[in-house]
C-alpha cells in the first residue's frame, strides 16, 4: 500500500470507530433508559466481601423487560470492543502512512487519538474485573467528545517526525504517559460519579440509583489512581528528563509542559499521600482527584494553545506550518 492509501485507511478507521462508539453509546442509553423506572432494592450495588465487584441491581419483575436492558448492555459492550479494535487499526495505519514508518505520536491529533484509545481500552480491559458497566455512558460520551475535537480542530496531515521526536525515548516516554493518562481519566470519571452518587444516595430509580455505593466508587477510584501514579512518575520524573537531556542537553528546562506535568504529579502524590496517611476518603479525595485530572488534561491539550514559549510546541498541530513535507514551528 502507498503512504496515501495508509493515510486514507487511517482517516476512514477513525471515522468508523467514532460511528461505532456512537452506536455503543446509544445501546447503553437504551439499556439505562429501560431501567430508569425500576426501583433498586436495598441489596443492589452491593460489593462482595473484600472486593469491588458490583451488582447493578436486580432484574425487573417482568422477565421480558429484564432481558431487554441486559441485551442492550451486552450489545453496547461488544460495540465498544469493536470500536477499540477499529481505532487501533486507525492508529497503526497512521504510523504506516509516514515515510519512514513511525509511531503515531507526531502531533496533537495523533496524541489525542492515542489518549482516547487508551481510555477506551482500559475501560474494556477492566470492565469485568471491576464491573465497570455503570461507567459506560460517561466513558463513551467522553471518548466521542474528545475524538470530535481531534478530528475537527486538531487534524494534521501525516508528516515525518521532527528532530526532537526522532528518538526511541518517544516510545518509552509517551507510552507510559498515555497509560497513566487513561488510568487517571477513568479515576477522575469515577470520582465525579462519586460526588453525584453522594448527593443522590436516597434515589431509588434512575441512573444515579444504579451506580455502586459511594464507598465502592471511592475504592475503585483509589485503585485506578494507585495504578496510574507510578506509571506517571516513570514518565515524568525518569523518562521525560532523560529524553530532555538527550534532545536539549538539560534534564530540566522549566518548559511549561514540564512544569504542568510536575504539578499534576504533585497533586496526585498529595491525593495518594492523604489517603494513606491522613485517611482522606470520600468527598475531599474526590475533589482532589478532579483537580488532578483537570491539570492533566490542561497540560495534555491546553499548553499547546496558551503557551508561546513551550519547547513542546511541535505537539500542537494547529501551530505547525509546512515547508515541503517537514513541519516546523513558526
UniProtKB/TrEMBL annotation:
A UniProt-annotated Pfam family: Cytochrom_C_asm
Record-linked NCBIfam families: cytochr_II_ccsB
Source species, domain of life: Bacteria
Protein species of origin: Nocardioides aquiterrae
Keywords per UniProt: Cytochrome c-type biogenesis, Membrane, Transmembrane, Transmembrane helix
Name recorded for this polypeptide: C-type cytochrome biogenesis protein CcsB
UniProt KW Transferase keyword: no
Compartments, as annotated in UniProt: Membrane
Topology versus the membrane: Multi-pass membrane protein
Residues of the Cytochrome c assembly protein domain: 105-307
Annotated TM spans: 12-30, 75-96, 108-126, 133-156, 168-196, 224-244, 259-274, 286-306
Classification via InterPro entries: Cyt_c_assembly, Cyt_c_biogenesis_CcsA, Cyt_c_biogenesis_CcsA/CcmC
Keyword Transmembrane: yes
